[in-house]
Amino acid sequence: MNIIRDQIHKLPKADVHNHLHLGGNINALRAKYSDARLTIPKNYHGFDGMMDFIQNKINKIMLTSSDVMFFMEMAIESSIDDHIEYLEASVDIGLVRFFNNSIERLVNEVAILKNKYESQINFKPDIGINKNTPIDIVYSDGLKCIQSGVFNGIDLYGNERHNALEGFVNIYNTARDKNFKIKIHIGEFSNCQTIEDAIILLNPDVIQHGIRAVDSEKTMDMILQRNIQLNICPQSNISLGAVNNISEHPIRKLYDHGIKITLNTDDLLLFNATITDQFMYLLDHNIFSFEDIEQIRKNGFN
Fold first, then answer.
1. Could you tell me the residue ranges of all domains in the chain?
2. Please, which residues bridge with residue 230 across strands?
3. DSSP letters along 148-188, please?
């Protein structure tokens, strides 16, 4: 298996579901912040548990704009270490608070990162929007990001069971008019009906997670017919308790239904599993064959 792991590790890969400031390797963070003594939990006991960990642990380390830039750069370098050649990662507009509330400064720093690493990785940043962000900020800062020419996609996330999506329709339409890739987090904890509602309202190209589509043939057919891609993160789903273990994960059933899926890290810093790790995990548990893994790997570049 070490030979196979080495083979997978060396293959060019894509990571298209990644939150940039949480996408770095824990060992790189420990080397930089040796006093932090950060330990990554095996289980977070749900979305709220993860948010508590971010608030009480990560946010006690990430205190300045320099820290934010280190976290984001760490994510890009961690991706390169795993032979990620194509990276779509969201930059949360809420990080503007570290840059004197200047969205222009944040956007400029992202542009600098793109230029710095362009010879090593094809980095396509998404505009990341938490649903709890005040809607006036979503539109004022979000529109500036769309107009900047730095971003290529837009992604909406947060507690899936709360916050109506109607307020985001106009900014999504604006992003679509600019040929942005349209993404939304839905269907990791929420049911298949919420997936259908989000599809009808926001017309996404991509659903981040979407694993509860497996509970409805109608929902899976809707995703398939609209050629929506599911960017799935198995280790994230397990660590957060959305599924109990890899054997019970619906990824195989979604794949067998013909839905285009990809494999991703979500938050490498929180879940401590590279894409190589997760491909190996799926192989070791006979969820997919190597040929299946090859197809899923290639899907990430489309």
1. 2-299
2. 207, 261
3. HS---EEEEES-TTSS-SGGGHHHHHHHHHTTPEEEEEESS
CA distance 49 to 204: 28
Query: How far apart are the C-alpha atoms of 302 and 291, rounded to whole Å?
Result: 17
Weakest-pLDDT range from 40-49, 100-109, 113-122, 169-178? 40-49
With a CB cutoff of 8 Å and minimum separation 6, the contacts of 271 are 40, 233, 235, 236, 239, 265
- pLDDT category at 1 given cuts 50, 70, 90 is low
The CATH code for residues 2-299 is: 3.20.20.140
Answer left, alpha or beta for residue 252, where phi above 0 means left and psi between -120 and 50 means alpha. Answer: alpha
Q: What is the helix (H) or strand (E) element at residue 262, kind and residue range?
A: strand 261-263
- Whether 184 and 198 have beta carbons less than 8 Å apart is answered as yes
Whether the model clears a pTM of 0.70, i.e. scores above it, the answer is yes
Given the structure tokens 């971003």, which residue do they identify? Answer: 151
Token pair listed for 37: 């003594």
Mind telling me the catalytic residues? 188
Q: For 209-260, what is each residue's pLDDT tens digit?
A: 999 999 999 999 999 999 999 999 999 999 999 999 999 999 999 999 999 9
Query: How many residues are given for the chain?
Result: 302
Alpha helices in the chain (DSSP H): 2-10, 26-32, 47-56, 65-81, 103-117, 135-148, 169-177, 192-202, 217-225, 234-239, 251-256, 268-271, 275-284, 290-299
Specify the 3-state DSSP secondary structure of 120: coil
